[in-house]
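Throughout our pipeline, every protein is held as a single compact record rather than as scattered files. Nothing more is needed to write down the fold, since each code stands for a local backbone conformation. The record that follows is passed on verbatim for readers who wish to inspect the format.
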Amino acid sequence: MKKIWIITLAALVGAGFAGCSKDKKNDGPVGTATLVVKLNETVLARSLDDAATRGPLALDLPTSEIFIVDVNGNIPGHFPLTAAASDGTGQVVGEVPLTSRVYVVANIPTADYTRISTISTLASLKSATSLISLQQNRVPVAANQHGLEVSISRDPGDPSRATAELNISPVISRLELGGIQGGTDSRGSITGFTVSGIYIDHFFDKFNYSGGGTDEVIFENIGDLPTWPLRDEGEWESVDNVAQPDNNKVWAYNVAAGGLPLVIVKLTDITWIPTGGTEQDYPGEYYVTVTGYANTTVFRPGQVYRIGNIDQDTGNSDFVFTPEHLGAEPHEESAELEIIVNNIGWTLVDESVIIGD
């Protein structure tokens, strides 16, 4: 494989020099240079669903690639990404035409690595898709920020070298739930409950390598929707009317960007006080359905959306449901409730969400 790449580079370099002919008009930089790729400081992310711990975005170098793109959008060659790209010195790639551009993809799923790393055009690379199948490690696929390839610039101090400096960020989004709290409406007050399941609805089954999604899945039967374990300790039992994971953890699920994935929370062991009555069981299984997000019509790549943030001083959650939000089936109730959704993992923004249809 290495010999094939050397031949390709030679052809690429020859094409670059051929562009120097005085009989041919050039619309871009002329000549070639030794390319150095530098990754600027990457965004912060969590490799585990820990609300407190954040660190540099993890890069799985064995499944990360630098793609060289020519003026026609073809990919004449690619290189494995190395640690040198992000250590300040830069990764020396080789000699390329100055008209080249660079697109980096990190953390390619192992099962898709051969297919993705050998794609021959930039358009095909960006539109290529993979299943979001590895939830447990929480490590997102990352690529050039905003899905834009980067041009290279000749080093003014050394004309034989050129640099491509770029930022990479996740091409997917993440949905998190910190906790949920019972509340009061005209029907009565929730006094206790257990969270026994969390499901994703209206989600894309696949993501693409420029920050979008395909193959939308919409609720038909609760058994057809994906869920992710609530953590090793199992179900969340409410304490002081708030249910949450232990030890400052959160429930987290990687989702493809470009859509509006929704959350369905399954509740059991509910107790309540009807208005004017006394505490009693609210028997059966019920669902609280998040059906929209105020000020957000689409999940953007590289962002983590958290609902149910827990106030560290009061212990309260900003995801509050009441008896009117309980449905025997998902999407059953029509009540709406706005709560805050914080984007706190990869970038920082505040939004709000709506519960109910």
